[in-house]
Amino acid sequence: MRRIILLLALCCFAINYLLAQKAFEIKIPEIKVRDCPYNKFQIIDSQANPEDLGFVQTGMLNKYTPVTAKVPLTEQLQVFFDSVIDNDAQSGSLVVQLRNIKFSEQTKSTSEKGFCKIRMSLFEEKGGMLHFVSTIDTLVEVKAMDVTGKLLKEASNVITSTLIQHVFLQAEDYSTPLTKTSLSEIDALEKNSIPLYNTEILPDGVYYDYHTFSRLLPAQTELQFKFGEETGLLKEVKIPNSQKAGKWTKVKPKECYAVVVEGRPYIAAGNRFYSLDHENDDFFIRSSTMGPANTGLQVGLAVGFGLVGAFIGAAVGQGDTVYGIMLVDHLNGSLTFMPDK
Q: Cβ atoms within 10 A of the Cβ of 10, count?
């Protein structure tokens, strides 16, 4: 009798576990790609946790539901290439590196927003070495009353359509060849070419987008600033008024990406400036308190991504306050929440 009860309990647990997940499936488009430079494809999943594809919100109560792939994404993409690449393809070999595929959702009073971050790098393999072709770095954003199904479908469409476009590209002549083992260090290799990550002295000034911030090219260098007397936090930044000589204009955080004051960087988010720390080759907002009250926090307009609120939502999906950092993405400047371990 005990065995029967235990078996039933295990069955119930397994059913609840499966129902508590949302499967992501890459749909195969009904097309054929002709004259492709490649007829061999290898997919390498370099994500820290390939089984963690983020979350969506399901049901009337918007239950936090992990997104999983019942069939590994490497296998799904292999089937995709085998299905769409026509027999007239040339003999090239393409390596596709999965670097980040992550879902999240954000609920508002009248609608929902769904996000999927997608990053993949493509390499042409020649003589056992990998030559850089391109990096796919995009954000899928979907709005709807019930966004989950639409988000999963759109993410699949973006992955397949973008890959079809990129399979006609070939390796850059100037790229430094890599080995397959060095793909695990691709973030560090990319940072080596970004000035922001290779200097200890940051020029003071206002940076209106991440492109100029990463290259340390401020648009305005003459500043006035104030710090809070009690908090010590950066309270206000002003620049010369271009229309009125001798006058100064306050810089609105929502209108820029970052400022550097006395050599210290601050990222503009919401209605304030957050101090950025730099450790282990990463920039981040340290020890942020993440909770329901500030789930609407958005990155400055210049970034173009509404990711901060989405990923805070991931951290507080169950309504709890979570502590962690907001990590700056070295390629596009967006912020990703990383909970404390």
A: 10
- Does residue 332 share a domain with residue 199? yes
pTM (2 d.p.): 0.80
Domain boundary (158, 191, 224) is at 191
Six-digit token pair at 41? 């494809």
Percent of the chain with pLDDT over 90: 64
pLDDT band of residue 162 (cuts 50, 70, 90) is very high
Same structural domain for residues 163 and 206?
no
Could you tell me if residue 91 is inside a domain? Answer: yes
Same domain, 215 and 182: no
Across 40-44, 78-82, 223-227, 323-327, least confident range = 323-327
Whole-number pLDDT of residue 64:
84
Of residues 321 and 126, which shows the higher confidence score? 126
Domain boundaries, position 334? 195-339
Judged against a pLDDT cut of 70, whether residue 299 lies above it is answered with: no
Packed helices 73-84 and 148-166: angle between N→C axes, nearest 10 degrees: 50
For the chain, the distance separating the N- and C-terminal CA atoms, rounded to the nearest angstrom, is 42
Of 142, 171, 191, which closes a domain?
191
Number of domains in the chain: 2
Residue at 9 is within a domain: no
1, burial (CB in 10 Å: exposed 0-12, middle 13-18, buried 19+) = exposed
How far is C-alpha 97 from the geometric centre of its chain's CA atoms? 15
CA distance 292 to 313: 8
In which region does residue 192 sit, left (phi positive, over 0), alpha (psi from -120 to 50) or beta (all else)? alpha
